[in-house]
User: What shape does this take?
Amino acid sequence: MEGSGNHHDRFGNKLTLAAKADGIIGYGMIILDKQKKGVTFEIHPSNEKREPAPKAIPGWPMTIRIE
Assistant: This one.
């Protein structure tokens, strides 16, 4: 995916971008499920005033299994 890979955030922290939602304003969450050994990535869109903007984002949320 274009733009994925290793980067630094605006504070200089290292991060790896595995997926993205171009043109979406909002924030993301990572939910760990130890019992099911899975990780769910969510994106919560907002508008320009940072108010929740309920809309479906194709491919989100995404869950991966951790062995």
Observations:
- The first strand starts at residue 5 and ends at 8.
